[in-house]
Amino acid sequence: MVSATSQAPAGAPLVQTNVDYDPNVVIDTQNLTKVYSDFWGRSKVRALKGLDLEVRKGEVFGLLGPNGSGKSTTIKLLLGLLFPSGGRATIFGKPTTEVSKNERIGYLPEESYLYRFLTAEETLDFYGRLFDMPSDLRRERAAKLIEKVGLKWARRRPLREYSKGMTRRIGLAQALINDPDLVMLDEPTSGLDPLGTREMKDLILELKEQGKTVVMCSHLLADVQDVCDRIAILYQGELKEMGRVDELLEVTNQQQIRVEGLTKDAQAKIAEILAQSGGKMLDVSSPKNTLENLFLDIIRESQARPGARGIIGSGDDNGGR
Amino acid sequence: MVVEEFRSFSDWLLTEGALLTFVFVAAFCAVTGLLLGFLVSSFRHGPGEAFYAVSQTVFQAVPDAFGMKFRRIWAIGRLAMKENFRLFLVTLIIFVTSLAVAGWFIGGGGKYPERSYVSFLFFAAQILISIFAVLVSAFSLPNDILSKTIYTVVTKPVRASEVVLGRFVGFAVLGTVLLTFVGALSYVFMVRGINHTHELSEEITADKWLPIVDGFTPDGRRPFDPRAVFESTVLTTRNNDHVHRIAIVVLDDGTFDVVADETAGHTHSVEVVETDPETQRPKVVSFGPPRGNLRARQPIYSTPRGDLPALSLTDENGALNNGVNVGEIWDYHKYIQGGTQATATFRFSGITPQRFANTDSVNVDLNLAVFRTHIGDLRRRIEAEIELRNVVDVAETETAQVKSVKIPFETEEFKVQTLTIPRKLKNGTIRTVGQPDQVNQEFDFFEDIVPNGELDLVVRCIDQKQYLGVARASIYFHAGDSSFGWNYLRGFLGIWAQMLAIIALSVALSTFLKGPVVLIGSVGVIVFGYSAKFILFVADSVIGGDRLADVWGGGPTEALYRLVTQMNLQHPLPIGLGSDIIEFVDAKVLLPGMKSLSFAVPRFENFNLANYLAYGYAIDNHMLMINLTTAFAFAVGMLIIGYFCFKTREIAAA
Q1: A105 contacts on B by Cβ (under 8 Å)
Q2: Calculated CA dihedral for residues B202, B207, B211, B216, nearest 10 degrees
Q3: Which of the listed CATH numbers 1.10.287, 2.60.120, 2.30.30, 3.10.100 matches domain B297-481?
């Protein structure tokens, strides 16, 4: 029953009026720009500069960038918390200011901005009501989600008594209360212990298996590397890199050979006599960089040479990393 | 009780232009809002984009209005209630504490203790509920935005209209529950404080009953009940800071009745427990609970009839005038001269047997003022008479008969005096055009005097050189009493209406301002609403240019100048450019603006209906309807403004 109600509730079906809408594209931004202005309308900060982004159905998409790079601004623009200064953005083919799009979205903010005087059950009941869910469905989903995030033992305690990790868990539960098609996670593993982090990553992969689309921002690059299919790296409001994680991390001008059962002599002379050594070749491939190295390289390069950069996903040659 | 406004709901809505004012203010706000939105948007995105943005916002209001879901509104309302439950408890505790402290000071003493109770309780309830309403609604949404908890709400399929309305509903329900507690507690507090009984201070022996001779007691005093044949010198015990005297009255069937005098605004039922076997007069009596202090009289006031006013005065020559000026600045009462043919005519309609439950008598309540030019006989009150006259169109037929009955009475000042008019009237006069008067006629009040429900009541003052003061509310037919408890509840409806207006105002302001600013803004608007009458008065006199005649000190800028320079209010401003600028700013900018604004803000003092209760009158239905309609109209306007402000606000930009 839970999985069957991921669409709009009965009586309020989502009507798709955008004729150009591709159902496989969940998020689409074109030249999305955000300029923060002061009281008098004077430009203060150009937080996002012409972002072109496309997130496809069923993928786990990561937004990376240092502080102030425009990640949160992008998420807020997509959720309608901010209004764009230029360009356009659609989610499920609808403008981001349209309320009905939220029926298919689950959002976990970077801090769990929840009402601390409510208990876990009351919290989920409240957010369930906001989705206009009937009471039996709210109860059923709340019970399942509380169990899923491991808070059954604390479900009747007010959130003010929760630790940060527990608050993140209940925050995740509220993001999933409507069984969303698109889950937007802002720093999902922040505040979680290693076990909790592992569970969160498993959950993201589980959501992917269920066909959900996940968009996440994170500073924890290892987490992103573990779960994301594609990533975009933002720096100072500009998109610096976007593509599949495995492609981005591939060092294309080098090869690595994995062998097994070599003698010590052969190991010493492996560079010259690999073919005659008698060893069994297992794999020849390019070595992988770490995401951390990639990220730092891009940031350093951007600092040294400001401006747009060739993007691997867009077909530009990214050189030999 | 002073009643200056006699307006029906329909008169207020249509004739006085309340509906028109609402439409005008709404249209003004709409045009201003659109223009402002367009200008701001043009400044940022250019006129083309601005037109699109404004149009989109306006058109989205339609689905946002009709697409609201009760479950979401109620969810947000419940959240608002839970969030403020602690403040609810604190407010209730403060009120209970204030009752406990007030009990030491109010007590049951004084001439009319119920007035002290009602005034205090309504004042306390009104202040407390207003503060509660402002506090809960001023900080809730700004705190949500500040703590970013609003992010998890507006990223759900929640419309801006639901966020605004949900909060209003939540605060309104919480406030209503609080008001219910406050009302119930205060009612119990008042009834318990006023309720009491007495005992005899000593046994009434035969020598304690003093006979009434020629309408006077042996010590030359008038008895408190004109029907009394004996008054006892024995007083009751002193309870609630007062004592009563008792008297024996002979009833029509020859039996005795014992009555207690009216002290502290009430009397008591008296039951004879034991009779003196020798004199057959009551010896031991017991007293019931107080009667007559917690009342809700249902008055039928005089009303205009065609072109004729509800009350008109004539001088000694029969010419219409505005009464005699006896030198009072406040001209609520109009005076007629005694010992002359000067009259005050009250025109009544709707005097039907059904409204008086077909009783054998009809009560007329008098609340007259007296102006004495000489002291006269101190033991005598001013004598006057009323004449009840049927209403016929004499010009229509020559046989039309004017039937009238004169009823003399002595005025009792500073209290509501009741004249009981028997249904069967004697000594009536029939006057027919061209025929001699027929006197000593017997009339049936309903069949002969008010066959069509209409009646002229003419008042004359008999005593020479004394003056009788009348106002429209001075004389009314008293069609029974309604329940005081029900009236009390209706009084609290006034406070409830005010609470709704304040909540809507604060919620609307909280959609675009920070909590402390909302608090100051709300208090400012409330003070402005309370001062609206004065602002209009100042504006009219200053803008009209005749300010020396009406108002000292000028408008706000001039007042500020005088305050800073410590200049006397009556001293004219020095002639020069500075004074010209001050007067220009006041007369052409500030006061016209304030005057316009005063039409958009409710007159908050009108929500206080405590006077009706304190003086024992049923709250006028029309007044209640006007209050409720004003509050609802203001609340709807504020919520619409709040919706557009929230809708166009970048939540995450705060």
Answers
A1: 155
A2: -70
A3: 2.60.120
